[in-house]
Design goal:
alpha/beta; Rossmann fold; 7 helices; polyprenyldihydroxybenzoate methyltransferase activity; EC 2.1.1.222
Amino acid sequence: MGNANVSNVTIRPEEAEFFSGLARDWWNPKGKMASLHQVNPVRMQFIRSAIDAHWGADEGIDSRSLKPLAGKSALDIGCGAGLVCEPLSRLGAEVTGVDASAENVSVAATHAEASGLDIRYMAGEVASLDIGQFDLVTCLEVIEHVADKRAFLKDVAARIAPGGLLIMSTPNRTAASRILLVGAAEAIGYVPKGTHHWSDFITPDEFADLLSEVGLEITQQRGIAYGIGKGLHLSDNDALNYILSARLKS
């Protein structure tokens, strides 16, 4: 995403550089990106639920189907090394992953090939890439790293095909997230130092307003919480993190 014209750049170069430095360790479940490996099953649980809710009634997608995205295209924006692209591919989608970091994209492509998955990966700013529109667009833990959130969401919305589905997740801007996601998590090494900047977090109300401004409406929203004995799980408590689905306004 960093090679776009200045008017299209929404990802800060220092953010892309930071995550590029983590690329080689991305697929290590006990490495620096362990937190993403732990939250990914929770995110995929929500994604599967949102897919069934969005297309199930109209297209007869059975919630027991192993490939509910068969015949559909999916785009993961800010794909990192492919932690979401690969399960989307296994759900049957024709997947494209886009990331600001060429290093991430290289690692993602290598891992997908080794896993026998046909996934298209591209490095660049989503607004500058000629990739068309997609039935499903995912963008997880990305918007908190974006300088101009409104411009970025406009670019995201432009990638959603008519009748399509958007899924995004991000930390909430609360006292709890400042203490736990930034302070404690970095202090104990749960996430690499410098991962989060609390002032860039966005509240659910702010997010809903921005989505509305670019022509989208939220259809589902859940918190991602942590509980002793339960670990990370979908919850009504969105004080730390939340995930949502949205569609184009009719």
